[in-house]
Amino acid sequence: MGVAPIKMPQLGESVTEGTVDRWLKKEGDYVKRDELLVEVVTDKVNAEIPSPFEGTLVKISVGEGTTIPIGTEIGVIELAGVDAETAVPAAAPAPAAEAPVPAGVAASVATAPPDGAPGRRLSPAVRRLAEEHGIDPAQITGSGEGGRVTRDDVLAFLERQPAAAGAAVAPAAQAPVAPSPTLPPDSAAPPPQPTPARGEGVEDQLVRLGAMRRSIAEHMTRSLATSPHAWTLQEVDVTALVAYREAEKESFRQRHGVPLTYLPFVTQVVCDAIREFPYLNSTWTDDGILLRRAINMGIAVAIPDGLIVPVVRDADRLGFTDLTRSINDLADRARGKQLKPDDVAGGTFTLNNTGATGSIASQPIINQPQAAILTTESIVRRPVVVGDGIAIRHMMNMCLSFDHRIIDGMMAGSFLAFVKRRLEDWSPASIRL
Questions:
Q1: Which are the catalytic amino acids?
Q2: Of 57, 171, 240, 413, whose CB has the highest number of CB atoms within 10 Å?
Q3: pLDDT for the residue numbered 142
Q4: What pTM does this model have?
């Protein structure tokens, strides 16, 4: 029987290392070809790696939580029905460039099948949500591919059973209180017990870093060490845009099946601004500044484990409806852990809608190796001076962090002023269909 190594795959063009987050099989397990074998995490994607071979997992070379370079052996499979002579050539080390993610990689995270549901897999977000509410996932009918239970399935299950959630808390709240012992009339009352000082007896808790959180921390630290960050802000009157979206959002959803958010409007304007100021869409190299011709827009999406930035490729070439669908599709798949490595590769500029959290100003960290990142903040109604009077307007701040090696303050301010002017002068005719 021959053996073949399993190697850390290439998970994105700029990724040089990955973390073994969870082994889905243990030593001695028989594994079929394309059966999910191990979960690998980088700062860009969270992926289940299927086995490229059929046989027995005889060795786990890299333990969970270990970060290693791309192409490093992480395990060994004893091949089924293959002689050692034929297995050795196939197992020879391949260059990193020839080590793509095996076919069938999905970005959702596998778990052990829950009791009563053989073979079913859950993403970490779904598993945590079910555990938080004391739900057995086996009770839920999955709407995902192959009957997989999604986060929406769990939320829908909770909505159908509001009483169950309350019942789970009720026993603890109604626990009987033991009666105090009755003392004889002439007995002295027991001395009062001292109240513990604030914090006394309370132990600190060490939260283990997940692979994604550790990768994000390393990437953010490296970004600040690599690029001299500078930051600027401009406020924008988006009253006309708000009125249009409010009037059209329901009919848009009915026609196209996706919600109408502000992000695609901003994305189209930012794409126009990048054409005017191409250095915002560039990368610093030792040989010079590399101007990127394609505008691949990274859209930051918050997920339970942190933040991930899927990429809308050639965003400037998409019509408004296709752009809206692409953004919604990527965001939904990011939250459902269904992104593929290609979905997070090749970004040239990043947008982050921090206003969704109520933020009015933020200072984002550049997503390397890009030159800049723009945030859109909360849209707030407030009085502003209009002409010689005061009016209530919908105002939004835009915050730009940029690499000061590439972009100076004048260029950054001009770029933001271009976006501001286009958004303030916005009309339905501005939409590129």
A1: 404, 408
A2: 57
A3: 76
A4: 0.63
